[in-house]
Amino acid sequence: MLLRSAACVLAVCGIWLLQVAWRRRVGNGRHLAFGWAALFLSVILWAATSHPDKGTALGIVAIMLAALGALAWIYVQAEQKPARDPADRQARVARAGVPEILKRIAAGILLGPLAGLTALAIATAGFVALQKAGLEHTGNLVIAMFAFPLLWSALAVVAGANSRLWRKSAIVIGAGLAPLAYLGLAAQG
Predict the structure, then answer these.
(1) Angle 66-72-77 (CA atoms, 0-180°, nearest 5)?
(2) What CA–CA distance (Å, rounded) separates 10 from 43?
């Protein structure tokens, strides 16, 4: 019961830290890192208390409930604003040039397929490492299957939060090279 309570507290703290990072917009690296780490530890604690497959699912549900509670709290605390004129809502966007369009396409490729491949490499490396550690195959597979979309979304958010294309590239490519090197070494030995 104590571990489940700690997992719930970690989920709430993780959501709160991510909300703080979102509101600050600048200088939020620590909040992002600790927020995602708290959510990750929350899922691990749930998995430790309720078996890997059921615990992981319960941990993800706890995170979603914490996020729903945070959104409800923000909604209740918000001031009511009068409706705006529809003419004010229309965005006035300047036409983007070819270099800007190419940067946006490159960022989309980085955050979409390349971040997905990086997440797949990390999840596969985790699967291989846990398999070598002797974890039961089905539980290991469930962990890898849950880790893949979570890693992909986390990687896309962290990389997408950076405004510079070279930082996005460094995050995605750097996060993918380490597990690929591990998988290459694991295949040899």
Answers:
(1) 125
(2) 9
